[in-house]
Amino acid sequence: MSQEGGDRKPTRPADALEGALLSMDQTSRRNEHMLDLVGPVEVAAMFGVHAVTVDRWRRDGILPPPDATLRRGPVWRKTTITGWAKATGREIKDGA
User: Which pLDDT does position 80 carry in this prediction?
Assistant: First the structure.
């Protein structure tokens, strides 16, 4: 008995479920990176300063370059900012 589409093997339900779960896991990891982005307001909250201060730090080259720039402005991965804080001896406020 010949199958349309060549020598494809029938998919078992367990294989289909495993594939769907792997796909969901990859999507979840991508979304985690999106949640990891912080803009000037969030960076300001992390250090207990005003967003204007963060803008000045950026303009003066104190902050690392943004990881991306969106229509609403620069964004950094939270890990970029925490790494910069550690390297420069800056303290991140609790809960940020």
Answer: 97
pLDDT digits (tens, 9 = 90+) for 1-15: 545 555 565 566 666
Query: Do 77 and 36 contact (CB within 8 A), yes or no?
Result: yes
CA distances from 41 to 25, 59, 63, 74, 93 (A): 30, 15, 14, 11, 14
Could you tell me the pTM of the whole model? 0.64
pLDDT digits over 43-68, tens only?
999 999 999 999 999 999 999 999 99
Reported as half-sphere exposure (CB side, CA atoms, 13 A), residue 57 has a value of: 23
Q: Is the C-alpha dihedral spanning 35, 73, 43, 82 positive or negative?
A: positive
